[in-house]
């Protein structure tokens, strides 16, 4: 459904050293530095997938979204989305997509939400019948009933975000771009927004591409991650794959009936040990988890075992370090 | 066009959320040109006439210019304050909607409180017309309407041009106000009081003369040539280069993203 091949984009950014002298100087003469915002980015996304697009600030996430939503024209490369090149036939193409910029509103601030929805209906030329049924669906799944007649400025951030997402879905787009949809939301609202994205993906088959800094979003939603850093695509695959690739270490916390004989576990390292509890680190590439557990149970009488995998957040931090982002 | 009215209705509803503020703003707007007009009045009170133009003739010129400018400010405000759409990045939002950019920018803002000015300018127009004793014909009435329409188109063109420039400069350029506010100040007097170069500039480069000076000559009976009544139509052509510039600006924006 989405084919991106070798997209590159370079920006010229005015360079200005600090200080008043340079500020004045830059009025007349400016030096530019080339910033490679995107370098040879390629990926394919099939219909109905939820893809998490992650990377540190300034990595090129928004630039990619802008290219895919037809706002920005890349220097090189091709992009075909549902048979359109986004930046060529903008008007025909954007009917098929919905875009939510988490930090910017598309609703009219002073009027009730329903008024904004009706104007969007006219902008997108949605037939009345389709509009009504979509509105009912969205109102039910997003629990918007009580919000529709409130002015946008009186909504909480979480309520507003739900209305924003609903607004971008009124014209039944096939693809939904979400740029940081959970930014600034409290835990309850985040979960509500995530559930809604899941529902809409499942029931309407909407392909979702979301950028976020919240790894819980990714874990809750995305079956696939694209990791971008310094304009290049660093990883494209599943969340589990990322875990497997970057962290093969597991931490085992074992509680057992008191035993004063220290544990002997060749291949694993014991992080801490007391007569009734041990914390063990195992590299699953070196040693099978089953073997460790067999060994453990042969030496002590196990009461409880907890195996922790590294949280995805730590993995990302580790990856950023590894790639020096 | 239909969409444009929908946008307008929406912003009108928004505006009505702040009714008191709107009310005072409208009164304030009414008073601004009043002071300017008072200035003209006292000028004539002292000097009697201006290069053969009587007070009421200048008042007519003033009224037409102000009506055209006010209508433009009210309805093309989106272009006038366009640089804020660039600064906040809201222009991206317009680009992901399946409509032309011009109608969306036009629809992004209306300044309804300017109607206050329109009322004052309308009063001046009526007052001037009733004192001059024009021999009204159908053609003269058409000429008057064309003057206002053409003025609106020309001022809108300048707003679009100014907005297009902000694709490169990001912030709006004050220099453009020479042609918007400056143009309004200039054209509230008949153009023949200025030097020849100024007149040529405002006839052929920015066709202010087309919407007010030439047709005014016809309405006031200073010329018998009927085609002067239709010169305002030439002012409509000014919109073409402005829209062209706008397209170039949008293309530039989409290749630099800033």
TrEMBL record, chain A:
The keyword Thylakoid does not apply. Keywords: ATP-binding, Nucleotide-binding, Transport. It comes from the Bacteria. One of its GO terms (molecular function) is ATP hydrolysis activity. PROSITE patterns: ABC_TRANSPORTER_2. Residues 2-255 form the ABC transporter domain. InterPro entries: AAA+_ATPase, ABC_transporter-like_ATP-bd, ABC_transporter_ATP-binding, P-loop_NTPase. This is ABC transporter ATP-binding protein. The lineage of its organism: Bacteria, Bacillati, Bacillota, Bacilli, Bacillales.
UniProtKB/TrEMBL annotation, chain B:
Signal peptide: none annotated. It comes from the Bacteria. The chain crosses the membrane at residues 21-43, 118-136, 142-168, 201-220, 226-246. Keywords: Membrane, Transmembrane, Transmembrane helix. The keyword Transmembrane applies. It holds the Pfam family ABC2_membrane_6. The keyword Membrane applies. This is Membrane protein. It comes from Paenibacillus radicis.
């Amino acid at each position: 459904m989405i084919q991106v091949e070798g997209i590159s984009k370079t920006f010229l950014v005015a360079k200005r050293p600090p200080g008043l002298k340079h500020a004045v100087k830059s009025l007349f003469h400016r030096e530019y530095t080339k910033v490679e915002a995107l370098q040879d980015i390629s990926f394919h996304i099939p219909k109905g997938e939820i893809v998490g697009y992650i990377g540190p600030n300034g990595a090129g996430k928004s630039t990619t979204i802008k290219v895919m939503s037809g706002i920005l024209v890349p220097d090189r490369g091709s992009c075909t989305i549902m048979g359109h090149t986004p930046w060529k036939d903008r008007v025909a193409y954007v009917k098929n997509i919905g875009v939510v910029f988490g930090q910017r509103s598309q609703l009219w601030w002073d009027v009730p939400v329903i008024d904004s929805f009706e104007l969007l209906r006219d902008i997108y030329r949605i037939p009345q019948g389709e509009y009504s049924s979509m509105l009912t669906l969205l109102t039910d799944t997003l629990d918007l009933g009580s919000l529709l007649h409130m002015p946008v400025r009186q909504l909480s951030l979480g309520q507003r975000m739900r209305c924003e997402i609903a607004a971008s879905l009124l014209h039944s787009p096939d693809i939904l771009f979400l740029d940081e949809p959970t930014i600034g939301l409290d835990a309850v609202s985040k979960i509500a927004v995530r559930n809604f994205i899941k529902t809409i993906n499942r029931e309407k088959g909407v392909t979702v591409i979301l950028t976020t800094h919240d790894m819980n979003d990714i874990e809750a939603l995305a079956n696939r991650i694209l990791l971008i850093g310094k304009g290049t695509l660093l990883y494209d695959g599943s969340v589990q794959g990322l875990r497997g690739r970057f962290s093969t270490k597991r931490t085992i916390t074992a509680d057992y009936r008191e035993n004063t004989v220290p544990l002997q576990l060749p291949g694993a390292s014991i992080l801490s040990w007391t007569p009734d509890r041990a914390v063990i680190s195992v590299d699953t590439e070196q040693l099978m988890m089953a073997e460790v557990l067999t060994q453990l149970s042969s030496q002590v009488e196990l009461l409880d075992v907890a195996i922790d995998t590294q949280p995805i957040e730590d993995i990302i931090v580790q990856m950023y370090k590894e790639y020096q982002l | 066009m239909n969409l444009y009215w929908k946008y307008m209705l929406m912003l009108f509803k928004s505006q009505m959320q702040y009714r008191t503020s709107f009310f005072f703003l409208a009164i304030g707007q009414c008073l601004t040109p009043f002071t300017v007009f008072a200035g003209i009045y006292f000028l004539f009170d002292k000097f009697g006439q201006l290069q053969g133009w009587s007070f009421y003739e200048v008042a007519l010129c003033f009224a037409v210019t102000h009506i055209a400018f006010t209508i433009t400010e009210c309805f093309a405000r989106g272009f006038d304050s366009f640089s804020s759409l660039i600064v906040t990045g809201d222009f991206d939002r317009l680009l992901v909607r399946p409509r032309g950019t011009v109608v969306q920018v036009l629809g992004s803002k209306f300044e309804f409180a300017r109607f206050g000015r329109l009322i004052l300018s309308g009063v001046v127009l009526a007052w001037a017309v009733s004192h001059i004793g024009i021999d009204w014909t159908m053609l003269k009435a058409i000429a008057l309407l064309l003057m206002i329409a053409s003025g609106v188109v020309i001022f809108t063109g300048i707003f679009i041009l100014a907005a297009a420039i902000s694709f490169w400069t990001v912030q709006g350029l004050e220099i453009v106000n020479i042609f918007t506010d400056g143009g309004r100040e200039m054209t509230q007097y008949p153009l023949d009081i200025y030097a020849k170069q100024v007149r040529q500039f405002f006839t052929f480069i920015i066709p202010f003369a087309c919407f007010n000076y030439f047709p005014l000559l016809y309405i006031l009976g200073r010329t018998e040539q009927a085609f002067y009544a239709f010169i305002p139509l030439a002012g409509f052509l000014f919109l073409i280069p402005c829209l062209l510039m706008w397209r170039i600006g949008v293309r530039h924006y989409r290749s630099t993203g800033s």
